[in-house]
Amino acid sequence: MSEKKTRILIIDDDPEIVSYLTDIFQDAGYETLSAGNGVEGIEVAQTRKPDLITLDMDMPGRGGTLFYVKMRQEPYLAEIPVVVISGVGPRPPALNKSVPVIQKPITPEVVLETVKKMLAK
């Protein structure tokens, strides 16, 4: 029987970033899911139950802040660790202080190290 892979949901409206993060995570042995916006992100999170979510804050439609607030209101999603990977400046006030924020452009080592730390909590 194979071991269940850790599942990471990537929420970003930029297909190049999604592809880049997918490559980084899959090369490191993670299973990946993706969503192009916050609405799709909530749907994927509810149906696929990821172990961790990477979240872009600056997206059209339901952006990262609205996704995060909605996610924290859902009992079965509220405990999923989130890592913000975004080009936006200061930390949005809605984010819990424990949520790490990685500024774009990103380096794979920083992303993987941050994800490992969050999954270990």
Automatic annotation (TrEMBL):
Pfam families (alphabetical): Response_reg
Signal peptide (from-to): none
Residues in Response regulatory domain copies: 7-119
Gene3D superfamilies registered for this protein in UniProt: 3.40.50.2300
SUPFAM superfamilies: CheY-like
Stated name of the protein: Response regulator receiver protein
Single Gene Ontology BP annotation: phosphorelay signal transduction system
Keyword set, alphabetical order: Phosphoprotein
Database matches in SMART domains: REC
Coiled-coil segments: none
Modified residues (4-aspartylphosphate): 56
Keyword Phosphoprotein assigned: yes
InterPro entries for the chain: Bact_response_regulator, CheY-like_superfamily, Sig_transdc_resp-reg_receiver
